Structure prediction request, 263 residues.
Amino acid sequence: MTFKNKVVWITGASSGIGKGLVLALSTMDCQLIISSRNQSDLDEIKNSLPNPDTIAVLPFDLANYDAMSPIAEQAINCFGKVDVLINNGGISQRSLIIDTAISVDKKLMDIDYLGTVALSKALLPHFIKNQIGHYVVVSSLMGKFSSPYRSGYCGAKHALHGFFDALRMEHDKDNIKVTIICPGFVNTNVAKNALVGDGSAQNSQDVATENGLSVVEFTKRMIKAIEKEKYEAYIGKKEVLGVYLKRFFPKLLHKYVLNSQVR
Prediction:
């Protein structure tokens, strides 16, 4: 596929990977709908670009998953259609299971899984009507294997794979594509914003995240994977090997992760 003349809707667009996608795609002759909870940040990004007339701002909260149908209608009305939905919005976690309130697990599922699913289902009739559409889902390597301190996050990301693999099969007949992107460590504020056991933000960076791929390099690889209509893409450094260790040598992966104690 090509992004030329497409309408691309990006959630979680005000920072990190989402903002990186906005900056990269704004140069690719397409129209963008950018969403997050923070309208002022979205407006600032839009107004900083040379072609603000090709960008629509649509703020909303993924946690309000019961209200996605009118949000989808607003998105369609921005430019008359949506061709690609990039489900990038979400939140991470850094806390042991024993220390994590169940309300934190629920919040992770509400935002990372149910919000993404509800938004995608709200847009699905539009894709079916047009007999074309592309869902891009930003999961994580933690959607393929797990790590301590991320139990609720891993659960939500694993769930995304189950849902969108089924969606891809059910709507192959409607020419609807699904690409699941699995980032490793990317140098964003994801660790700072991650929830700890009581639901507050961690408010500190970790070494692995700081030493991860730059947002520019990551988004370049992600865009290529979308253009190639890949089913899944694993994007990172050596941590990507965990996907294959999990598949072929799960006990070895278990020992490696325990010994590394990556936070």
Summary: The CA atoms of residues 167 and 178 lie 8 Å apart. The first strand starts at residue 7 and ends at 10.
